Every structure is written in structure tokens, then in C-alpha cells.
Amino acid sequence: MALAQQEKIRENEGENTMKKKWIFPLLVVAVVLVGCSGKTKKEQSIKNEGVALMESKDYAGAIKKFDAALKVKDLNKLNVPEIDILRYRAQAEYLAGDYAAADHTYTLLGEVDGDKTEYKNMRVICLSKEGNELDKAKALFDETNALKDSGIGHKEALLELGRAWAKKSSESGDQSYLEQAKAYFAAAAGKEGQVDTQLCDYIGKFYYEIEDYQTALAWFEKGLGLEASNRELLFNQAACYEHMHDYQKALDLFKAYQSNFQDDAKAAHEIAFLESRL
Fold first, then answer.
1. What is the pTM of this model?
2. What pLDDT does residue 137 have?
3. Which helix (H) or strand (E) holds 103?
4. How many domains in the chain?
5. How many other CB atoms are found less than 10 A from the CB of residue 217?
6. By CB distance 3.0 to 4.6 Å, which of 126, 153, 190, 274 could disulfide with 121?
7. Domain that holds residue 237
């Protein structure tokens, strides 16, 4: 369970690090927009209160503030500062785990702020996590995947869609969903300019989660071939060897990892566990 436990530590330390990674570019855009806006002092004050609540992880409170800032507004006729607030609301809903609400808000953003790929990618992520409308998620993913520039969050959308298919395959016993996920990952790996350490890590995690550790290891090591010092890939490489019961190799890798990243308590735990097995 090394990889899964590592992800849990990262989430606990950074409030769902992966979630933040996916939506951070949207947050950056939102902040830039604020600097250009001429919104009233009242709207600005309410929005700032909402942002402060987000930073303190009170997402429900933040959503209420953003809704208050948008109150009595015609959501089909939003100006740039109000679109900024709506972006924040979408992020707060996502971080709160209310994926249906976040999907609704990203859909609205697509209507009022242009049909941007970043909104579609976030919708794929939300729909995949929700798990009830995977056909819609697939259709949205196919739209952005056909573009030369698939936009911010596309690789993350691929990972979540793949995970959703794998889960559906497990629940239904229908292996076609799992095969579909594998086909999409294979297509992504073959797309020109697509393969980087992030994609290698995501595909590796997918195969790790379905307990195909050999394939997962191959992807983690492919990523390390691109960036030998990548922290997450190094940890995940060691975790694969542990799950394949090559405890000596895993121990050697975790010790090498720990020598470079001494702040990782999880690595120390893994080393202690492996030493007890040898």
C-alpha cells in the first residue's frame, strides 16, 4: 500500500495536493483578472473574504461568500470581474468535493466566458469523479483531445477518466471499460509532444491502482529517464518493487530516496517495514 499511503500523506499535508495542482492555473488567471478589474469595493471585499475562507479550507463558507458577491447578478451577462468570482466558486466547489456543483459552474463558465478547453477539462475531471455520466465525460475529453492544444488540465482529465473506467469495470465485471482506459492512455503516450514526467507518473499511477505493478514500474522508470531526480517518480518506483515483493531492491531505492529527501517521514516508515521483512 506504499503508493496509496504516500498519496494520503501528501493530501493531508497539502489539502489534496493533486486537486490544487489541477486547478492552480485557473486560480492564477483569476488573480490576474482581479488586477484588471474595476469591481466595486463591496464586491471586492466579499470576494476577498471568500478567498480567505478558501485558504483556511472553509470551502462551504467560501462558496456562500462568492454567491453573495454574485447575488442579483444575471449569470448570463457577467463582466470580467464577476467571471473571476465565478471561477473561484467553481474551485471552492471542487475542493469541497461537490463535483456535481463544480461541473454545473464550469458549464456556466463555458457559456459566459467562451468555450475554453480548461473548463471542459475540469468538467471531465468532475464528471469522472462523480461517476454517473462517463459518456458525457468521454465526449468532452474527445473534443479537447482532438485539438492541437488540449489545454490546461488535459492530462489530469485523462487520469481521472481512466480511473473512473477502471472503477466501473471493477464494479460491473465488464473488462471493456478497463480496456478502453488502457487504449486512451496508449493514445496519449503516442501523441507527439505529450510524453513528459507528469504523464508518465499519471499512467504509472493508473496501472499501480489496478495492481499491474510491472507496467506501472515501466512508466515510472520511463519518467525517471526524462528527469532522474523527480521525487514522486522515485518514491513510486520503490513502491512498485515493494509490491512485487522485491524487498531488497525496494529497500535500496527507499534508502537512496531518503538520502535526498530527508523530510519524508513516509520513506522512513517504508524502510523500517522493509527491514523487518529481510
1. 0.76
2. 95
3. helix 99-112
4. 1
5. 21
6. 153
7. 195-278
Rounded-to-integer distance, Cα 151 and Cα 241, Å: 34
Give a yes or no: residue 275 inside a domain.
yes
Are 249 and 218 contacting, i.e. CB atoms less than 8 angstroms apart? no
| C-beta separation of 256 from 23 below 8 A | no
- Say how far apart CA 16 and CA 1 lie, in whole Å: 18
Task: Flag residues of the chain having pLDDT under 70.
Answer: 1-40, 72-77, 192
Q: Which grid coordinates belong to 264?
A: 519524508
**Closest Cα partner for 121 from 54, 23, 209, 194?**
23
H or E element, residue 18: helix 17-36
Task: State the DSSP string of 51-72.
Answer: HHHHHTT-HHHHHHHHHHHTTT
How many other C-beta atoms are found inside a 10 Å radius of the C-beta of residue 184?
21
Residues sharing a CB contact under 8 Å with residue 176, sequence separation 6 or more, in sequence order = 169
Q: Please report whether residue 170 resides in a domain.
A: no
Helices and strands counted in the chain (H then E): 15, 0
Would residue 76 count as lying in a domain? no
CB 128 within 8 A of CB 138: no
Which CATH number characterizes residue 202's domain? Answer: 1.25.40.10
What's the grid cell of residue 168? 466501473
**Dihedral sign computed on CA atoms, order 57, 204, 118, 140:** negative
Q: Does residue 233 lie in a domain region?
A: yes
258 close to 245: Cβ distance less than 8 angstroms: no
